[in-house]
Design brief:
The chain is of the alpha/beta class. It has 2 domains: 140 residues, HUPs (Rossmann fold, 3-Layer(aba) Sandwich); 128 residues, 3-Layer(aba) Sandwich (Rossmann fold). The chain is built from 8 helices and 12 strands. The strands form 2 sheets. The protein has a 10-stranded mixed beta sheet with strand order 3-2-1-4-5-12-11-8-9-10, with helices on both faces. The protein has a two-stranded antiparallel ribbon with strand order 6-7. Helix 7 packs across helix 8. Pfam families: Usp. It comes from Candidatus Methanocrinis natronophilus. This is Universal stress protein. InterPro entries: Rossmann-like_a/b/a_fold (IPR014729), Universal_stress_UspA (IPR006015), UspA (IPR006016).
């Protein structure tokens, strides 16, 4: 499913950790390592990237060896950029290399511990059009070590659904992924004029989730489901913690999505504010950054 993967790297501890995850992703054969080099002075109008380009290529070669040791084919790209947004370079390289998935750390160099998502990751999330895996790590005592989820990333996957067409598309992709051991299907009842109305929606959701559960079990995947009531984003983040999942995998869009929006509000908030790795599966009907 994700044969060719792009991994943007800034050589930080966080991005280095991502490399440890890539080999464990189901179906990955080729990795494109990308480092975007900008001028040290953001106001510079003339810039010779020669020395920094040489340094970047040396570091990329070192990271490539780690991936090649996992049996992966690796392509290395160091891209100078005088001005513009890094995410646009990530997008253009993704298109050129024909990648299926972008994998990146939620944070990069100089991350602030109380920030949930770095600026580059946030822009790739908001404006990119490739499937995106945002890796997160628990910061262990002292703040020097990062505990990885990635070694068991497909062990237990939370799959939110609102039963929309884009959501069904994502569910089918997840069901076809190799290496998933357990799935928790999740639906949030987000509105209701009365308790009876909420109860009716809950009953309807239960019937649909039971049918989806049966489909997953036919595919050989251990499956359970649960239903929340309240804010879809908040409930999804809370369910991911309560279930102690290794990954949240969800559609970029849900019911009533506007085609020109590259990501829906629920997916954006879960990816931005959650504490677990998030796989955002782009809807085939969503727009593309210009």
């Amino acid at each position: 499913m994700f044969e060719t993967v792009l991994v943007p790297t800034d050589f930080s501890k966080y991005s280095q950790k991502v490399l440890e995850c890539v080999g464990g992703l189901p179906g990955v054969k080729k990795v494109v390592l990308l480092n975007v080099i900008g001028p040290a002075d953001p106001l510079a109008r003339v810039w010779d990237p020669g020395a920094r380009l040489k340094e970047a290529k040396k570091k990329l070669a070192g990271q490539a060896k780690l991936l090649e040791a996992q049996g992966l084919q690796v392509s290395q790209r160091a891209e100078p950029m005088l001005e513009g947004d890094i995410f646009r370079k990530i997008q253009s390289v993704s298109d050129e290399e024909g990648v299926n998935l972008v994998v990146m750390g939620a944070r990069g160099k100089g991350f602030v511990q109380n920030l949930f998502l770095g600026n580059v990751a946030k822009n790739v999330l908001r404006y990119g059009d490739k499937h995106l895996l945002l890796m997160r790590y628990k910061i262990l005592e002292g703040g020097d070590n990062l505990e990885e989820y990635c070694s068991l990333i497909t062990t237990k996957v939370l799959c939110p659904t609102d039963f929309s067409e884009p959501s069904d598309e994502a569910i089918n992709l997840i069901k076809g992924m190799k290496g998933i051991h357990e799935v928790v299907l999740f639906h949030v009842v987000s509105s209701g004029e009365s308790q009876d109305h909420i109860d009716a929606k809950t009953k309807e959701a239960t019937e649909k989730l039971n049918a989806m559960k049966a489909d997953f079990e036919k595919a050989g995947i251990k499956t359970a489901f649960r239903i929340g009531v309240g804010s879809p984003a908040d409930e999804t983040i809370a369910a991911a913690e309560d279930e102690d999942v290794s990954l949240v995998a969800m559609s970029s869009h849900g019911k009533g999505f506007v085609k020109h929006l590259l990501i829906g509000s629920v997916a954006y908030e879960v990816a931005k504010n959650g504490t677990r790795p998030v796989l955002v599966l782009r809807s085939s009907k969503a727009g593309k950054a210009s």
